[in-house]
């Protein structure tokens, strides 16, 4: 049991939407570890030197093997659109929305981000990535519209 459920002075139960949030945060750290696990050996094996006073970062990236670049690119992508997910999910938590459909959308978004990462970091099939990205983006948009409806028009958890 967690401390929220057992602590007598705390009646607050954490909102379940925080679970997919923290899973995506942890996944981002996994991708960061994977990034360094591929990049550091590649720089040593290929004797790649980076001096920002002499070369642009693009020069460094161009020397990296594609597989190392793919993981780094995905890590960067996890710092982009998922920030919108964090805002949406934290808004759900702040308004204490416990709608199961919204929670399912949040979990599906996180699952699709993980699938997107695995595709990009391994085989990097652009059309597969694109399909997963568009599907995840659509789910995130639906979730954002549902929250906007709650905030702008009321309705509580009935939407």
Give a structural overview.
- The longest helix is centred in the first third of the chain and has 28 residues, at 18-45.
- The mean pLDDT is 91.
- The chain is mostly helical.
- Helix 2 (18-45) runs parallel beside helix 6 (100-122) and helix 5 packs antiparallel against helix 6.
- It has 7 helices and no strands.
- The radius of gyration is 20 Å and the shape is elongated.
- The protein has helices spanning 3-6, 18-45, 57-63, 66-77, 82-94, 100-122, 126-153.
- 23% of the residues are buried.
- It has one domain (16-158): Four Helix Bundle (Hemerythrin (Met), subunit A) (Up-down Bundle).
- CATH class identity: Mainly Alpha
The best one-word shape is elongated
The biggest beta sheet reads: none
SS summary, helix count: 7
Oligomeric status: single chain
* Cα radius of gyration in angstroms: 20 Å
Mean pLDDT: 91
Low-confidence stretches: none
Distance between the termini: 30 Å
> Helix amount, in percent?
over 70%
Provide the β-strand percentage band.
Answer: under 5%
Based on DSSP secondary structure assignment, what is the total number of beta strands? 0
Q: What is the N-to-C order of secondary-structure elements (H for helix, E for strand)?
A: HHHHHHH
CATH fold type: Four Helix Bundle (Hemerythrin (Met), subunit A)
Number of domains: 1
The SS-based structural class is: mainly alpha
CATH architecture: Up-down Bundle
